[in-house]
Amino acid sequence: MALGVRPRPKPRAKPPPRKRRKLKNIAVLPSLVTLVNGICGFTAVFLASHGADAVWEPEFFQAANFSFFALAGYVIFIGMIADVLDGHIARISKSTSSFGAQLDSLCDVITFGVAPAFLMVKVTEAYSHSLRFVSYDFAFISERVVYLIAIVYVMCAIIRLARFNVESKNGNTHLGFAGLPSPAAAGVIVSIVVFQQDFLPRIARWSDGSADGFAVAITWILPIVTLGAGLLMVTRVSYPHAVNRILRGKKRFSTFLIILFLLPPMLWNVQLTMVVGFSAFALFGVIRWVFVKAFSRRRKEAETEASREKNFGSGI
């Protein structure tokens, strides 16, 4: 080898290409139930797109007539039932998987993210056009604000579900959540819409239309409620997993009696029960968080004061 000539470095060996993991086996029954959840979300969007003037009058029950807004809300509630069932079926059959968790989140985005936001926009839009005293400029601004609130809600639902997938583990029986769960957030919005569309018209027929003003007031409150529910989803306010706490394990006989006696009034007025139940659940986490923060602050102040008195008494 000649002097002053450096040997050429040997070329680095290329790393072997990574093989993609192929999905071979899935749990059929839980996946089908999860897909029912997603189908309910798409169906709710389809029904809500018909507007306030569309009414469904089934032939087999002539006395019933439902607005398509109310039908969209009821379909979202069916999606909630499917969302509860798929997890329990997967745990009972011991078939929980990463595929099921991802599929559940994708369907939840549609049913509890996109569908409630779209329903809120359509309901607000329908009632804002019925108000003749509203100026064109105010209507233009309010429609844009409502649209932005719907976008914020959908983004919060997506972020909340993505964070839940990262922080959760497969096969874990969740007894609590960090942030308002997306089904509960959707329940707050949808229960108000169902109450307005399916319960208030009955009161209006009994009271000669005096409930119309209340229905309009609910419409203007609905975007504010949607914004609050969306922001609660991405907070760290703790909420209990109500379904798992009720159904998991054995309970006292008194608990069974309480549930048994609460069922008749709940079934007597389902619309009012849903509004009170979902709203109380959403406010429960906020109120408990405020009390915990206030109590911990007072406790720290008391401990600091006690340590000061102790140090002063010991002459330090």
Could you explain the architecture of this structure?
The protein has 316 residues and is mainly α. It has a single domain (28-249, 267-285), classed as Four Helix Bundle (Hemerythrin (Met), subunit A). It contains 9 helices and 4 strands. The protein has helices at 28-48, 68-92, 98-130, 136-167, 182-206, 212-233, 242-247, 253-268, 270-313; strands spanning 55-56, 66-67, 176-178, 238-240. The chain has a two-stranded antiparallel sheet. A two-stranded antiparallel ribbon has the order 3-4. Helix 4 runs parallel beside helix 6 (212-233). The protein is globular. The model has no long low-confidence stretch (mean pLDDT 77).
Topology:
Elements: H1 28-48, E1 55-56, E2 66-67, H2 68-92, H3 98-130, H4 136-167, E3 176-178, H5 182-206, H6 212-233, E4 238-240, H7 242-247, H8 253-268, H9 270-313
Antiparallel strand pairs: 1-2, 3-4
Helix pairs in contact: 1-2, 1-3, 2-3, 2-5, 3-4, 3-5, 3-6, 4-6, 5-6, 5-9, 8-9
